[in-house]
Amino acid sequence: MSHIKHLLIGGLIIMTTGISTAMANAGDLKPIIVNPKNLYDPTPNGYSTAVIVPGGARLAYISGQGGQDSTGVLSPDFAVQVKQAYANLRAALDGLGARPDQVAKLTVFVVDHDMSKLEVLTRNVKETFGAALPAQTLVPVPKLAIDPMLFEVEAVVVLE
Question: Which SUPFAM superfamilies match (predicted)?
Answer without folding.
Answer: YjgF-like
